[in-house]
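User: My instructor asked us to take a sequence, write out its structure as tokens, and then describe one feature of it. I'm not sure where to start. Here is the sequence I was given:
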Amino acid sequence: MFAFIIGAILAAFISVPSLAQTGIPTTAPVISAIDAVNIAKDGVGPSLHDHIVSVYGVGTPVAIQTWWIIFCDPSVPSHGRVVKVDNGQITRTAS
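Assistant: Let's start with the prediction itself. The structure tokens for your sequence are:
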């Protein structure tokens, strides 16, 4: 039974087409939420690196290209600092 389940899982993974096979353009870098957070940390001071409030992405289910990371920053009136990461680069910071 266990071998059957493993075989079914492997067959499912093998049958899923890759991005190159589906014709979806792959020119822009696709980054994960963790990658976006690490990039966003360059846009805030070191004291905020561990004070992440929210991370969310905008794009298609296959390729999220824009990430918004909100850090808690008590030094600003809104108590939040937003960093926007587009295609692997910081494009905006705001408080």
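For the description part of your assignment, you could build on this observation: The first strand starts at residue 52 and ends at 59. Try explaining in your own words what that tells you about the chain.
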